[in-house]
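From the methods appendix. Each design record in this collection lists the discretized structure first, followed by the designed amino acid sequence. Records were kept in a plain field format so they could be parsed without special tools. The example shown here is representative of the layout used throughout.

RECORD:
C-ALPHA CELLS (191 positions):
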C-alpha cells in the first residue's frame, strides 16, 4: 500500500511540475520573431540639451505583440499569459551639450504577431538599480498633441535619479504619425 501511495504521489508531483514548467517557446524566434522594417515611415525625434557629465542616459523603445495567439505563457498552472516584447536601446549621442535621436515607430513589421511600439523609456545608467522611467506611450488613435518641452534634473549622489521640474503627464502619441519632442536633462547642482 505504501508503494502505491508513493507512486501516485510521485506521479501527481511529476504532472504538477510538467504543468508548471514553461516549455513553450518563450524566445522571440521562428514565426514569433520580430522582423525589421527595411523602410520605416514614422519617426519620433527626441532632441534637447544636456550636461556632458550625464552621458549615461539611454532611451529604450519597447515593441510588443498585440495578437493574443502570439502571447507567451507566464504560468501554465494559472493560465496566465503576456505579450512578447523586444527592446531596442538608443544611447544618448552627444554633440557638445545637445542631442538628437530618431526612433522609428514602425521599425518592427507587424507580421503574424502584429508587433507595435508600446512605449519609450529612459534609463539613467548611473542609477545602481537602472530604473527605467516611461516617458512616452503610444496609441492607434490619431491624437493632435502639442510639442512640449520637458526638463529632467538628474543627481549623481548615493541614490542617483532624474526628476521632472514640472508635473509631467506621459503623452499618448499616435503610432502612425511623425513626432518631435524636446527633453532636456540637467545635472542637479551640488548642495
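DESIGN:
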Amino acid at each position: 500500500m505504501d508503494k502505491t501511495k508513493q507512486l501516485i504521489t510521485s506521479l501527481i508531483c511529476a504532472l504538477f511540475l510538467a504543468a508548471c514548467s514553461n516549455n513553450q517557446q518563450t524566445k522571440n524566434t521562428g514565426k514569433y520573431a520580430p522582423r525589421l522594417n527595411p523602410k520605416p515611415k514614422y519617426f519620433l525625434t527626441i532632441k534637447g540639451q544636456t550636461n556632458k557629465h550625464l552621458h549615461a542616459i539611454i532611451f529604450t523603445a519597447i515593441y510588443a505583440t498585440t495578437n493574443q495567439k502570439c502571447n507567451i505563457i507566464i504560468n501554465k498552472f494559472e493560465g496566465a499569459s503576456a505579450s512578447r516584447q523586444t527592446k531596442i536601446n538608443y544611447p544618448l549621442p552627444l554633440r557638445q551639450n545637445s542631442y538628437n535621436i530618431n526612433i522609428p515607430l514602425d521599425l518592427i513589421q507587424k507580421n503574424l504577431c502584429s508587433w507595435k511600439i508600446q512605449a519609450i523609456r529612459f534609463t539613467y545608467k548611473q542609477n545602481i538599480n537602472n530604473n527605467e522611467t516611461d516617458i512616452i506611450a503610444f496609441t492607434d488613435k490619431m491624437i493632435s498633441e502639442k510639442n512640449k518641452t520637458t526638463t529632467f534634473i538628474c543627481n549623481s549622489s548615493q541614490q542617483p535619479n532624474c526628476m521632472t521640474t514640472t508635473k509631467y503627464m506621459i503623452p499618448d502619441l499616435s503610432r502612425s504619425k511623425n513626432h518631435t519632442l524636446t527633453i532636456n536633462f540637467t545635472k542637479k547642482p551640488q548642495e
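APPENDIX NOTE: Residues 20-25 have pLDDT under 50 and may be disordered.
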